[in-house]
Amino acid sequence: MDAIIVTFCCVLLCQGQKKIAANGQGVDRYRVLLSDGKFSHSSALLATQLNGKVTSGELEAFTIIRLNKFMCNTLPNGKQVLILLDLDVIAPGSEVANRIGNPQPYKSPDQSGQPTQNRAEAPSNETVTRQPPNNNRPEAPKSNGFYGAQPAVRKPYSAQKVSKPAEGTPSKVHPIDSLTPYQNRWTIRARVTSKSNIRTWSNSRGEGKLFSMNFLDDSGEIRATAFKSEVDKFYDFIQLNKVYYISKATLKTADKRYSSLANDYEMTFNSDTQVIPCEEEVDLPTIKYNFIPIGKLSETAANNTVDVIGVVRSVGDITKVIAKQSQKEITKREVFLVDEGQVQVRLTLWSSDAENFDGSGNPVLAIKGCRLSDWGGRSLSSLSQSQMIMNPDVPEAHKLRGWYDDIGHTMDYSEFQSDGSSGAGGGYATNWKTFDDVKKQNIGQDKPEYFTTKATIVFLKKENCMYMACPAEGCNKKVVDLANGLYRCEKCSKEYPNYKWRMILTANLADFSENQWVTFFQETAEVVLGRSADEIGQMRESDEAQFEQLFQEASFKSYIFKLRAKMETYNDETRLKTVCVQASPVNFHEYSKKIIEDIEKLLVV
DNA sequence: CCCCCCCC
Q1: DSSP labels for A179-235?
Q2: What are the residue boundaries of the Replication factor A C-terminal domain, all occurrences included (predicted)?
């Protein structure tokens, strides 16, 4: 299936690419000079989704590329502009290092008046026969990689005849997969697979209302949004699961944070947009997934919207929390999903999703469009747009069912680990140690090691717990008080009229087994003292008694501490240094569960 | 032109 024929190699000849301008969204556009050794073509733009190849240095000058997907726009003056949509680097420019051949500027027939001479060398769709990589869309009816050819030369890409067009319906439809912002004469025929409620917004740029929907056809899917007057025009008219002909909407680059659809673009309805019901019976899919294996979620950008499928391994009870912003009480439920990669992920369901959830019998759960959070390493959270289906009739679900019933139910699963910057310490930590363990097992002696423990602060050292630090962003160096109202940072070699307070707090922690000296830097010190470093610094200067009181109150409190033990050498003396990377309140529900598990393990032996 | 989706 992967028969790739390299038919069109291009060399970037000049000083590589040239940044031309930012488009309306502040995204840079790059122009590339292409050559196939015989002709060169300077009117080629890199699709913005390929910008990463420029910024990463992959597309340096003289790089040989294979162009998998592109489109050609002919301007009114006859000039042909190529938009490069998908390409692979065949040889890096540093290896090629030279121009190949003596390419002459390519002129389109309209421009040059030499109709066919260059044609064979020019990018026509016959020269590109590779199946595009296709983003896991094997059903996509792609026959070539050429999008939006000039009508005089080619029929529009994959145009299909509609058997019995109803009155006023278009004679041909385009696959969703072929839509780009560079071509606006298209009609799609697609099923509405999701439709949001009407939402209003109000911000500094204005206010209004909107709703959004997903369209799906055999080739792919696309999200569309209607604003203000288009809401009035289309909201009641467009119905979930119905099939429509849609044309004349605006296309723009999709933001992956808000959509899991495998499409680089999305639609905005405008005043010209036409939506016509499709009256004939058409066989179009009702849902399409772009599943990310659970283990791969750590390689997916946090805050993206994703599709995930897994076996419900365990289900938590409904709990209630108060939302910080709205102060409203909301219900939630935590569900744990696993797959063959032997990684478990937590999915938090909200409100009615939480209330209606029945995970008995370890069903397979597919969720389309849920938020990937970096809490606790990686976790999932359902959104109002999320579509959850139990035991869907898709191959992935059948495979998971068989695997779980066969061996999956007996397996152990690893969990995502927080990097300390966010996330669930307490109940979800795996490397639990007592301070006695730390000493007896030589934790951190060979390499730095993170561990979690429940412990109590028995002593906080007030002396030298804070210092005046450089106010520059990211520079935490101690400043020298020049006693003239200025503070000098040696690192920045600069004098500032101000400083910020930074904390290095030494504490003695104890659990039932042992005690341990631990260092708390800024963020964790602020957690255990319950005040910001600035407040504490001011307090120390203005109200010594209150400062004392603060330390009294912080003592003998217990937390779930995530600690890092590491050998450090200072003044020729090497010893274990333990730093707190996270201090979390004890979640007694979770912690009790852990203790019960510990006891059960003891009983088994 | 939204893009909030909650809690630990």
Answers
A1: --TT----EEEEEEEEEPPPEEEEETTEEEEEEEEEEE-SS-EEEEEEEHHHHHHHT
A2: 450-594
Q: Is A327 inside any structural domain? A: yes
Task: Take residue A399 and report the two structure tokens written for it.
Answer: 């495979």
Q: Which residue has the tokens 């010209």?
A: A272
Asked whether residue A201, judged by its CB, lies under 7 Å from any atom of the DNA or RNA strand B, the reply is yes
Domain that holds residue A120: 2-136
A283 lies in some domain: no
Structure confidence at residue A429 (pLDDT):
56
Question: A214 beta carbon < 7 A from strand B?
Answer: no
Distance of CA A371 to the CA centre of its chain: 9
Q: Which of A144-148, A292-296, A353-357, A531-535 has the lowest mean pLDDT?
A: A144-148
Quick one: A453 and A565 in the same domain? yes
How far the first Cα of chain A sits from its last, in Å, is 53
Q: What is the predicted pLDDT for the residue at A29?
A: 63
pLDDT digits (tens, 9 = 90+) for A150-178: 333 333 333 344 444 455 566 689 999 99
E strand segments, A404-464 = 414-415, 449-460
Secondary structure (3-state) at A258 = coil
| pLDDT for the residue A73 | 60
Residue nearest to nucleotide B6 (CA to C1'): A323
In angstroms, the CA A74 to CA A285 distance is 35
The answer, yes or no, to whether residue A111 has pLDDT greater than 80, is: no
CB A230 under 7 Å to nucleic chain B: yes
CB atoms within 10 A of CB A295: 18
Asked if pLDDT for residue A135 goes beyond 60, the answer is no
Asked whether residue A586 falls in the same domain as residue A458, the answer is yes
A447/B1 CA-to-C1' distance in Å: 53
The owner of tokens 């298209």 is A186
pTM of whole model > 0.85? no
Q: What is the pLDDT of residue A408?
A: 95
Q: Let me know whether A379 and A436 are in one domain.
A: no
DSSP state letter for A177: G
What is the structure's pLDDT at A78? 60
- My answer on whether A8 and A119 are in the same domain is yes
**How many alpha carbons lie under 13 Å from residue A476 in its C-beta half-sphere?**
11
How would residue A33 be classed by pLDDT, with cut points 50, 70 and 90?
confident
Strand B close to A348 by CB, under 7 A: yes
Average pLDDT over every residue of A568-578: 84
Give me Rg for the CA atoms of chain A: 31
Instruction: Report whether A498 contacts A487 (CB < 8 A).
Output: yes
CA distance A307 to A298: 14
- Mean per-residue pLDDT, A442-468: 89
CA angle A297/A303/A304 to nearest 5° reads 65
